[in-house]
Amino acid sequence: MKYSAVASFATLGLATFANAASQNFDIITIKSGSDFQYSTVGVNGDTVEIVQGNGLEGAVQDDGTLKLSDGSFIVIKDGKLTTGKKGTDGFAIYQGYVTHGDDPFYVCPNAAFAIETTQCTNGTSVALKALKVGSTSAQSVPDFTPGSGSISSSSSSSSSSGSSSSGSSSSGSSSSNSTVVTQSLESTTLATITSCASGVTDCPANSASSASASISVSTLTGAANLLNGGYAAAALAAALILA
C-alpha cells in the first residue's frame, strides 16, 4: 500500500509581492496651452531641466528616492532639482504623475529652463508625467507608493480534496483506508496530509517524516524575497512518496 504527503501551495501561485521600485519611466512636462506641453525632461550637467533629444530615465525606489538609469539620484535642495549620489526621498507616482509631497513644479526660463519646486520669475507651473519608456501614446506607468511593501494573496486555494477557508481548520473525505486532512492558515493551504485508517501501523502520516510537509509562511516570504523586483508570483509544490 502506498501513502503520500503533499505540500500544496495553490494560493501562493496567485500571490502578488510588492515591487521594490516603480516601473522605469521617462518624464515629460504637461501644461496645456503653454510652450512646455509635452516637453522632455532630462539632465544637463547635474541640473534637471527641459532638454532637446533624449531625456532622463528613472524609477521611484521603495525608500521614496528617484533613481536614474545611470545610478545617480534626483536631489532637491533649495527648490532646485539636481542629481547626486544620495537622493532626496518623498517621491511617488500618483495618477501617472511624478509627485514630491505637495510640492509644485515649475519650469524656470531664467535658469536654462530648469525644473524647480519654488516659484521663479516668469516660471510656468507644470506637471511631470511618468511616461512608459518607449511609449508613443503618452501612456503612464502604474502608480507607486514607496514603503507599501507587503504580500497579498488570493483567498482561494485548492487541493485534491477541495478548497480551504480562512483560519485554521481541517476538513476531508474518507475512503476505506485513508482520510485526507487539509491544514490551512490565513487562507493559504500549508499542507495536505494523507492519514491512515485506524489499525494501520506503518502509516507515514504518523511518522516524523510527515512533519516535513509543513512549511511556514516565513519560509515562503524568504523565497519570494529572492525573486527579482517586479510583480512576482510563485507556485510551489512538494511531494513525499513513501512505499
General description of the model:
The structure is a single chain. By secondary structure, the protein is mainly beta. The protein folds into two domains: 109 residues, no CATH class; 108 residues, Trefoil (Acidic Fibroblast Growth Factor, subunit A), CATH 2.80.10. Helices cover 4% and strands 38% of the residues. The chain contains one helix and 18 strands. The strands form four sheets. Strands 3, 4, 5, 6, 7, 10, 11, 12, 13 and 14 form a ten-stranded antiparallel β-sheet that branches. Strands 16-17-1-18 form a four-stranded antiparallel β-sheet, with no helix packed on it. A hairpin with an 8-residue loop joins strand 3 and strand 4.
Which terms would index this structure?
four-stranded antiparallel beta sheet, disordered C terminus, 2 domains, disordered N terminus, Trefoil (Acidic Fibroblast Growth Factor, subunit A), globular, mainly beta, 18 strands, 243 residues, 1 helix
